[in-house]
Design brief:
This protein is an alpha+beta fold. The chain has a single domain, classed as Glycosyltransferase, CATH 1.50.10. The chain has 19 helices and 10 strands. The chain has a 4-stranded mixed β-sheet with strand order 3-6-5-4, sandwiched between helices. A two-stranded antiparallel sheet has the order 1-2. A two-stranded antiparallel ribbon has the order 7-8. A hairpin with a 5-residue loop joins strand 1 and strand 2. Helix 11 packs antiparallel against helix 12, helix 17 runs antiparallel to helix 18 and helix 18 crosses helix 19. It is globular and about 60 Å long.
Length: 505
């Protein structure tokens, strides 16, 4: 004991005097941030945050929105700093808290548990889960783009809850951005009815798209049925049409204003996203110059703005823009699309799996012979580089840490590079199934089955649906980041599984 005490004294003597002086203040600050972060987390047990919008069924079977309380946008620097500290606190807290698994052990029961947790209409908006307590706008158009597919409804209550929470989330975002000078990647609750805006590393490329997509998919189920064609015996009716139409009319000026601001990201000479700005998409941890993902999102935003009557229809503009994007990014010698237009990417033929955004947006159609050649070539690239093993799909085959923002480069360089992402993995599985449907090539369906089976095994293994895995197929975790376990992205798995099963029948 005396020896241990002597060693401890030596360690204490080595601590700089300024550290000893400021350490108590740092500890108190950390505790205060923790308390405030907890109280302003809408999903905490003892939260101060109120639910501003809820929904009810009208006599005609359609949902309507009820305003419980207003939302106040806070724009001071204090709230911006707090939002970032709060985000970091939740991420680190999740690493060292217990993994939140489902209560059940069988596949269907685990999925049911996740639905009950993530699609509760008594919550204010949709989240991926765990440390993501703020509203990421892209969830509406990317990670939860399949939420309103009636073909994957578990039962009547599940379908109603999914529609309610999606509708409430859209209303929440539109109401905040009505008062906002610009769109953001994220909306962060900072008080009882107060929110602030936060950009994760850069302004968003996909927030406007996601808002327009949400309105479009709530107006008609045809959007999802046309993108992922398969049939089931019975589907429940869509009950968001009337509310979505009202939202479109109410927020049309807001959407037009943000559309016009969004046009400032376009290079007038090339007609594509500017190379001298940074934008945030699903791969928000990387610095990219005019990324393929961002340009496809730009094309789809333009298409939806025309479809919803935000701007006049102009099919020629869309056709010309699509060809510009293909000409700029397709590399025959590589066999797929470039990640971005940076000099480095052009020299090295950089690849990124978020090119799969072309499927959900309809930028390329697997049933179209001309478009299908791009899909088939990119699938070959993926398989040749084993990006779909042990299952799909990794963003890329190298780390490329120098392209990451500093915090990610230090804390989790694999997160946006060699890690396996469930959202893109299921888009890959659906693509394989649709290529089989279009070509009759059995190897595509066999591979789609393999991918679905791997994800099925993982759901049972982890008793949840992890957000991201490491390159070896284990749920991602290091000293600074741990994957969300019970993420509601499981609806994308359910849709992929239903599509593959329909083809086998």
């Amino acid at each position: 004991m005396k020896k241990v005490a002597a060693q401890a004294k030596k360690v204490v003597k080595k601590i700089p005097r300024w550290s000893a002086k400021w350490l108590p203040a740092l500890i108190v600050t950390y505790i205060i941030i923790g308390i405030l972060s907890y109280l302003t987390n809408p999903f905490a047990r003892y939260t101060l945050v109120r639910v501003p919008f809820q929904t009810e069924l009208a006599d005609n079977g359609q949902l309507s929105i009820i305003e419980e309380s207003g939302l106040r946008l806070r724009t001071s620097r204090y709230y911006g700093v707090f939002a970032k500290l709060k985000s970091g606190y939740h991420i680190l807290g999740n690493v060292y808290s217990g993994t939140k698994r489902a209560k059940s052990e069988t596949l269907n029961d685990i999925i049911t548990d996740i639905h009950a947790l993530r699609f509760d209409p008594n919550e204010p908006y949709l989240i991926s889960g765990d440390h993501f307590s703020m509203l990421y706008i892209r969830s509406l158009g990317i990670f939860y783009s399949t939420l309103l597919d009636p073909r994957t409804a578990l039962n009547a209550d599940d379908w109603l809850n999914r529609q309610k929470i999606y509708l409430q989330t859209t209303k929440y975002a539109l109401e905040v951005f009505k008062a906002a000078p610009a769109l953001s990647t994220t909306i962060v609750p900072v008080g009882e009815s107060s929110v602030t805006l936060m950009n994760i590393y850069a302004p968003p490329s996909d927030s406007l798209y996601s808002l327009l997509y949400a309105l479009d998919v709530m107006l008609s189920p045809e959007t999802l049925e046309q993108t992922y064609p398969f049939s089931v015996e019975q589907t429940p009716p869509l009950q968001t049409h009337d509310a979505a139409q009202q939202l479109l009319e109410e927020y049309r000026p807001t959407l037009l204003r943000h559309y016009l601001l969004y046009q400032n990201t376009i290079d007038l000479q090339t007609g594509l996203i500017q190379k001298n700005i940074l934008l945030s998409g699903t791969k928000d941890i990387a610095k990219r110059q005019s990324a393929f993902y961002d340009n496809v999102i730009f094309w789809k935003t333009e298409q939806l703005a025309q479809k919803l009557g935000i701007v006049p229809e102009n099919p020629q503009k869309l056709s010309a823009l699509k060809q510009k994007i293909i000409d700029a990014f397709w590399r025959p010698e590589m066999g797929c699309f470039l990640e971005d237009q940076s000099p480095e990417a052009l020299r090295q033929n950089y690849y990124s799996s978020d090119w799969l955004i072309v499927l959900s947006t309809g930028f390329l159609e697997p049933r179209n012979t001309g478009d299908r050649q791009y899909y088939e070539s990119c699938v070959k690239y993926i398989q040749d580089h084993k990006l779909d093993r042990p299952f799909g799909i990794k963003y890329q085959q190298q780390l490329r840490p120098w392209r990451l923002y500093p915090l990610v480069r230090i804390g989790a360089p694999q997160y946006g590079s060699t890690a396996i992402w469930s959202n893109w993995g299921m888009e890959y599985a659906k693509l394989l199934a649709l290529l089989f449907q279009a070509s009759g090539n059995q190897t595509y369906l066999d591979e789609a089955n393999y991918q679905i089976d791997q994800y099925t095994d993982n759901i049972i293994k982890y008793e949840c649906y992890p957000e991201v895995y490491d390159e070896n197929g284990q749920m991602f975790k290091n000293l600074f980041y741990k994957s969300v376990c019970q993420t509601g992205w499981v609806v994308t798995y359910e849709q992929a599984k239903a599509l593959v099963n329909s083809l086998q029948r």
